Amino acid sequence: MSIIKATMAGSKSDWLFHSPGKPDKPLSNMALLAVLKRMGRADLTSHGFRPTFRDWAGETTHFRSEVIEVALAHGIKERAEAAYARDDLFDGRTKLMETWARYANAGPAKQNVVELAASKKAV
User: Fold this and answer.
1) Is the CB of residue 75 less than 8 Å from the CB of residue 82?
2) 19 has which bridge partners?
3) Dihedral sign for Cα atoms in the order 20, 24, 26, 28
4) From the CB of residue 122, how many other CB atoms can be counted at a distance below 10 Å?
5) What angle do CA 92, 72, 104 make, to 5 degrees?
6) Over the Cα atoms of the chain, what is R_g?
7) What count of other Cβ atoms lies within 10 Å of the Cβ of residue 4?
8) How far, in Å, CA of 36 to CA of 5, rounded?
């Protein structure tokens, strides 16, 4: 939080990750693709990051699906259920993100990793 507060202190934006030169706009959804390209990983796409997080959280943690869905900024489709959903589940989301950070920083589970050959594009 101290890093975020320090970053936001001199900012003219309400967004922590704002569009370069446009402090009133969030970071583009293309930003992650640009990062992957600069890393020399144009063979990857950002499309799978959100579903990967959803699968990980649902299959390997004890967090309620409501907490996971709110963390992904998903709305509630059922109108009656949405009308009663008043809580932002902030405490649960905080714990979920802390759990994700520990998992993401732990490195691969070497005993379960299978190395795959690079795919070849069809001619």
Assistant:
1) yes
2) 22
3) negative
4) 4
5) 75
6) 18
7) 9
8) 27
DSSP letter for each residue of 20-75: TTEEEEEPPTTHHHHHHHHTT-TT--STTHHHHHHHHHHHH----HHHHHHHTTPP
Please check whether residue 49 is in contact with residue 72, taking contact to mean a CB–CB distance below 8 angstroms: no
pLDDT of the chain, 123 residues: tens digit per residue: 888 888 788 788 888 888 888 888 888 878 888 888 898 888 888 777 888 899 999 999 999 988 998 888 877 666 666 656 666 788 999 999 999 999 988 876 666 666 666 655 554
Instruction: Show Cβ contacts of residue 65 under 8 Å, excluding neighbours closer than 6 positions.
Output: 58
Element (H, E) at 18: strand 18-19
